[in-house]
Amino acid sequence: MQCVECVQQANKNIPTQKTQYGGRLRFGLPLMTSIFIGINIVVYLLQLIIPGFTNQLVLVPGLAAYQPWRLVTSAFAHSPSSIFHILMNMYGVYIFGVMLEPRLGRLRFAWLYLLSAVGGSLGVMLLSPANTATLGASGALAGLFLATIIFLRGNKPAVQQLGIVLALNVALGFLVSGISWQAHLCGAVAGILAAVCIVAIPRSNPQRTVIQLSLLGVLSVVIALATYLAVAAAKWTIG
């Protein structure tokens, strides 16, 4: 027989199981992946129900200069005229989320997703005309895609297959109208940089988690500053 305090103290002394890249090991359906998919679905339903709701979410560089929330909301909105837009994006988020979240842990995966999403919006601000309307999770999805290649770099067959899919997506981005290559490009860059912040620190380093999160914090500041400057430049251009 053991007292309650003894059991609690013994549980505290049990080492926390870690994921491959330092997060807390958890079992079951990846929580953050489910949350991101759920948010996108709820927003999509609101777009269908509320007239004009999409117009308040979509990213237009000329409008984002004065309504900066569009930099985030556009990454969780999809075209209400085609259900395939959200279905394809959410399928991609699910596939990469199931692969990445168990390896990274909830915090690192959520950070990677959000940095990629904002990075995609930054690409639209920098590279798209001021009157271009963009929406969708494609920036975040591109970041997850490229990050997966980084995390699976030791698995050559998987990397080769992902490379073929990447090449096809790059070609489609330039050949098919209506696809924002700007969001894909900068979302992918943000995803690569976030992945490097995580994988660059070896497992043997006792300060691994602290360094990883610090690097992600620095990257977040850099992307936030670049986004602020892009918004300010758009506002100055518009006058």
TrEMBL record:
It is a multi-pass membrane protein. Keywords: Hydrolase, Membrane, Protease, Transmembrane, Transmembrane helix. One of its GO terms (cellular component) is membrane. It is found in: Membrane. InterPro entries: Peptidase_S54_rhomboid_dom, Rhomboid-like_sf, Rhomboid_protease_S54. Pfam families: Rhomboid. One of its GO terms (molecular function) is serine-type endopeptidase activity. The chain crosses the membrane at residues 27-50, 82-100, 109-127, 133-152, 159-176, 182-201, 213-234. Residues 67-199 form the Peptidase S54 rhomboid domain. One of its GO terms (biological process) is proteolysis. Belongs to the peptidase S54 family. This is Rhomboid family intramembrane serine protease.
